[in-house]
Write a structure and sequence with these properties.
heterodimer, A: about 350 residues, alpha/beta, Rossmann fold, five-stranded parallel beta sheet, 17 helices, about 40% helix, globular, B: about 350 residues, alpha+beta, 60s Ribosomal Protein L30, Chain: A, Phosphoribosyl-aminoimidazole Synthetase, Chain A, domain 2, 2 domains, seven-stranded mixed beta sheet, four-stranded mixed beta sheet
Amino acid sequence: MKFIDEFRDTELAKVVINRIHRNSKRHIRLMEFCGGHTVTIMKHGIRQLLPETVEMLSGPGCPVCVTAHKDLDKAIALARDPEVILTSFGDMLKVPGSYSSLQKVRADGADVRIVYSTLDALQIARENRDKSVVFIGIGFETTAPTIAASVMQAEEEGIENYYVLSLHKLCPPVIKALLDSGEVRLDGLICPGHVSAVIGSRPWDFAARDYGIACVVSGFEPLDVLQSVAMLAEQLEKGEPKVEIAYRRGVRREGNLRAQELMNTVFEPSPAHWRGMGEVPESGLRLRKEYQAFDAELCFDFDPGPTREPKGCICGDILRGVKTPLDCKLFRGACTPEHPVGPCMVSSEGSCASYYHYGNL
Amino acid sequence: MGTFDEDKILLAHGSGGKLGHDLVEKGFLPAFDNPLLSKLDDSAVFEARGRLAFTTDSYTVTPIFFPGGDIGKLSVCGTVNDLAMSGAVPLYLSLSFIIEEGFPLSDLGKIVNSIKDAAEEAEVKVITGDTKVVNKGSVDKLFINTAGVGVVPHGIEISGSNARPGDKLILSGPVGHHGIAVMSEREGLRFATQVKSDCAPLNRLVAEMLEASDEIHCLRDPTRGGLATTLNEFATQSGVGILIYEDWIPVTDEVEAACEMLGFDPFHVANEGRLVAAVAPDDAEKVLKQMRQNKYGTEAAIIGEVREEHSGKVVMRTSLGASRIVDMLVGELLPRIC
């Protein structure tokens, strides 16, 4: 099983690092959109290896982190319904909502189950026909196609007790919103690898064309990230921002057409709430009319109550790249992975968790 | 195990009546035959001299059978290793079962056999025990508690608080096998992996190390929380800094691949047959050489050193040449792995 070491090859990495040092003359600010990239950068100490001219910011690319309190409260309210079995990816359980978390309502007796794929959720629906089985559809363009497939499968099999609470988010629209806000000055973007494996690299064209942002789609190994930084630095030195793919083993320009088709069959774009950014138009996915019978939002009558944001938590600012975890007064004190105040400390791909675990020396 | 009329454990097996006696006479005594146990008195009475080490642990692993071992083997190795890590020579074990009604007797037989094999390998005797049977649903299949007594030879002073700046850190073999082996058997996570648990009694290995050097300062088996947690404990307890080198730490390709898939750090994954030692620098090579002679230490390696700087913290030099903190495991990686 040799598919990791090649991308962690120390000698090759040194060559790429030297290339960055040689070619990067002017100060540039790059954002890694994806939480997976933040983990790679922190875990391998990549920031320490870059020249002073290259500044790295972490972006909003952690699906758990960007889920708004309002949406979390919906999931928690649904879980409290004794007729409901709520199924979720594990990360969501610990995230605090306004007044509780899925983990807490589970301890109080709610039937909340961790699943590793939508197929598990469908199986639970098959085995519990007298209950309503709701899957929390969370994630970016990466997970949406599999969730779409589960809805189509449920329809085909006539499973009528399976529902999806669609909290999906789309990446390119939120980057556009971030750039439009003018809050953060950016020169380049490390575009998400797995998201782009589905949507391709074309959806990033607007950033280079309309905003002059250099874009490179990157994989998740240290060499992938270093290579992407090198390519971004070179684009910016030449003054020719464009969209390039460094993650050629995973991403094609047109993306995965089959996955896109699945996603577009079941879902359509809708406004979505992002933590720290509020409502962003066309940045979410809701079930199309033909599939509304599977839409938990429409099929259940639930009241999540008023939303309450945690005091002092700056996850929203961190997700926009305006602040870092080190700027947060709660970091490492009131907020730790064991007692997280905000979602960026819960998810393993959250910026706060990455800073906490891998530290700054 | 002898033959029984029933094929399942019944509540009556734990009631102290006829069925219970049958189970002890035909099931347990033949496996653990020794004079102290077969007296069947309320306590085992034995002579002991010197400083005693005493430890206990409960075993609740799920699934109870996993690649490379089962809950029985684990319940001996875990307790034997806890004694060995204090420098003690393990002598005796107690063995208590809490069994769910309806548990197959044939499975109990397999578990008793593993306990027998592991105890023989570790040269410890089971000298007292107990069996309780509880209603269906009150426990998940079967839990085991063992306690162990050992003697610490004169002059041996081993503790997590004894690490000194300059000490070399030696790891006895590749990390993460037990946790990944158990995880791979879990429902919903059946991915193709050939990883076997490293579960093993380490008392022989420790005895050989202590014979080779009287400058072994710390010993610990990195079980729950993995290597990272053990090193952090050394750093905190001893008030020293620890520096390790990513490239020096043995991790097999299989474990690394499984960890990548599951999003785990191999340094946080549990082991049940590995140890970490802090050894004075002049003796490190000698101890390492000795360890490699033992079948549980063939892949032993020096992975770093103890320092005065960054006291209380574990720092790792990454393969790329940068440095980062290695944190303790926070929260739950895998519930009930031991």
